[in-house]
Amino acid sequence: MHIQRQLRTTCGLAMSLAMFTSLGLTASAQQATVEGLVTGRSGPSMSVKTADSPKVTVLLSDSTKATEKGGFLGMSRKDLGITALVPGLSVKVEGTYDADHQLLAKKVMFSRNSLRVAKQIDAGLNPVNEQVASAQDQIKSDRRDIDQTQQDITRNSQDIDTTKQGLAATTEATATNTQGLGTTNTRIGTLDQYETKGTVTVNFANGKATVNKKDKDALTDFVTSAANTPGFMIEVQGYASTSGSAALNQRLSAERADAVLAIIQQTGVVPMTRILAPAAMGTTNPVSTDHTRSAQAENRRVVVTIVVNKGITG
Predict the structure, then answer these.
(1) 28 - beta bridge partners?
(2) Contact 264/219 with Cβ under 8 angstroms?
(3) What whole-number distance in Å separates Cα of residue 235 and Cα of residue 194?
(4) Is 130 left (phi over 0), alpha (psi -120 to 50) or beta?
(5) C-alpha dist (Å) from residue 240 to 215, 275, 300
(6) Taking the CB of residue 157, how many other CB atoms lie within 10 A of it?
């Protein structure tokens, strides 16, 4: 009888241990961590390319933490929000898989340097930006030289042969630089393909990043109407005029984009997952290249655009 009681006790302990181990393995199997490069975002869905898979679907929510690591040995932590998750960002995602094998993100971490590079890509400022700008300046200089050369041709026919050689070399350099610019723009444009559904422009006073009441009301109405567009995303791009230094204009364009983004968030009709990261475009893409006061005023702006991923619209 004593031996039977011992056997029953031993069996009971073994079964309990097996059940505990099974539960532990099940709970552990639900957790997942992936590392890779953000290749696209559409609403709460984010695509990540990893070493093992060309596309892992990550689902974001307003409770998802997006944390930037920086400082000495990456010990500094800063919660930036999911609007910081732009294409080109190298991330580490922690979460759980659902029944459709989509990763429900609880935490997304990335380095400060990776975010800087990704924002440069998103704003059209890639690592070869300085080379492209230099090439553009060279093209303008070459064009001025061509004009001067053509004037010289009319005054002195004996220089025609020499001038033609210079024109041929300039044309070749222009074609090469244009091809390089096209390659860069294609690389940026293919990160995400969107179709524009509507746009509104908010203008600013010189050196200011404050939205007046009239523009605030117009922006609120525009964003409210955007909420009725199926599968919409909102893109915010800040610009500056050429007045002031390049560093000042870059900062002003960022502050203006952030000011408009704050108004959009205050409306309460647009989830954070529907807002693309605000882009500080500096003095690029001017409305007017004139140097008059009215022309410069047009360039001090933020452009808010409703876009829909072409994968949704077909």
Answers:
(1) none
(2) yes
(3) 10
(4) alpha
(5) 17, 22, 5
(6) 8
Residue 260: the pLDDT is 93
Compute the distance between CA of residue 238 and CA of residue 282 in angstroms, rounded to an integer: 7
Residues 6+ apart with CB under 8 A from 213: none
Per-residue pLDDT band at 27 (split at 50, 70, 90): very low
pLDDT > 70 in the chain, percent: 76
Fold that domain 194-313 belongs to in CATH: 60s Ribosomal Protein L30; Chain: A; (3.30.1330)
pTM over 0.85: no
- What does R_g of the chain's alpha carbons equal in angstroms? 28
String of DSSP letters for 258-275 = HHHHHHHHHHSSS-GGGB
CATH domain 32-122 topology: OB fold (Dihydrolipoamide Acetyltransferase, E2P) (2.40.50)
3-12, 116-125, 160-169, 200-209: range with lowest mean pLDDT: 3-12
Between CA 85 and CA 282 the distance in angstroms is 21
Domain ranges of the chain: 32-122, 129-189, 194-313
* Nearest to 113, CA basis, from 84, 92, 90, 82: 90
Read off the pLDDT of residues 193-206 as tens digits, 9 standing for 90 and up.
Answer: 778 889 999 999 99
